[in-house]
Every structure is written in structure tokens, then in C-alpha cells.
Amino acid sequence: MDLKAILTILHLLGVVIGVGSAYGSDLTFLQSVRSGIIDQCAFVRLKRLSRFVWIGLAIIAVSGIGLFLLDPHRYLASSKFLAKMTVVAMLVANGLVFHWVHLPRLAGKTWRNHRSALLLSGVVSFVSWTSAIILGFLRAVPLAYGEIMGIYIGVIVGGICIGLLLQPFIFPKKNGGS
After folding, report:
1. Quick check: 123 pLDDT over 50?
2. What is d(CA 156, CA 164) in angstroms, rounded to the nearest whole number?
3. What is the tally of structural domains in the chain?
4. In whole angstroms, what is the distance from residue 78 CA to residue 70 CA?
């Protein structure tokens, strides 16, 4: 097995760990808020899953740097690669917000006052992980960087609009979500 194959396998492993943990975290949160409370068990699960998201992102970063260094000129000329790097940067930024802003609020039981921010963060997470998977899967993308990013931002904005419309169903008032 050559270095590129090893780095590619590591990269895919990082994606599986990261996206699986992110989706698991999203489902845990949604199940908790449907009941109106985020109990200690769910909070511990969210923290653990958050750590695994960071482990996945670290594996993605290290293996991605290795892959990049094998052929930097090709990657720098690829709109798909540049868009994927922007999406990964969004994942990191959103992850920092989740870790430093949302998790303390979830622990302090003040999350109900920040439902819209939590919803926004969840949409950014879901759309970004899904976009990274799609971009990674596609062999070529016949679009310029700006076009790819326009679609990405459009999907995030659409997801936020749908989330805000569904907010009363996601955070039901009868269960303390007022």
C-alpha cells in the first residue's frame, strides 16, 4: 500500500468518526429537547460525541494535509478542494461555538433562551458535514468556487428558514420549550 492509499483510508476514517458523532449529537439533542429537558445522561452523551467530532476533525486535518502535500499544485487549482476547505473551516468554527457557547448553556439549563442559536448551529453542522461528504465523494465538480459556495450558503439559508418554520415542532411549548 502506498502513502496516498494510507492517507486516504485515514481521511475516510476521520470522516466516518466526525460525521457519525455529529449526526449522533444532533439526534441526541433533538430527542432531549422533544422531552423538554436535557438530562445528565444526554448531556454526558453530547460531551462525549463532541470529543469524537474533534477526533474525527483532527484525523481529517492530519491526513488531509498529508494528501495535500503529495500534490499541492493540483489541489490549489481545484475549486472543489477550495470549497471543501471552506466547509471544513465552517465545521471547525461551528464546533468551537458548540463547545464554548452551546455546551455550557446546555449544562446550565439556559438552552431554552437560545433555541434559535442552537438551531442555527445544528443546521450549519448538518449541511456542512453533508456537503463535505458530497464534495469528497464527487470526482470532479464542474463549478467555480463561488458557484459551489453559493449553493452551500443557499442550502444553509434554506435549512435555517425551514428550521425556523419547524421550531415550534422541534421545541414544543407543552414540554417546557417556551
Report:
1. yes
2. 12
3. 1
4. 14
Q: What is the mean pLDDT of residues 50-77?
A: 96
Give the C-alpha separation, 145 to 142, whole Å: 10
Which residues have CB under 8 Å from 95's CB, separation 6+? 50, 53, 54, 57, 125
The pLDDT value recorded for residue 102 is 86
Rounded to the nearest angstrom, the gap between the alpha carbon of residue 117 and the centroid of all alpha carbons in its chain is 15
N- to C-terminal Cα separation, the chain: 56
Number of H helices, E strands in the chain: 7, 0
> Does position 175 have pLDDT exceeding 50, yes or no?
no
Residues 6+ apart with CB under 8 A from 34: 170, 172, 175
∠82-18-61 over CA atoms, to 5°? 45
Q: What is the mean pLDDT of residues 5-31?
A: 94
Indicate whether 178 pLDDT > 60.
no
| pLDDT, position 95 | 92
Which distant-in-sequence residues (6+ apart) come within 8 Å of 76 by Cβ? 82
Range of the domain at 13: 3-175
Q: Which residue has the cell 476514517?
A: 13
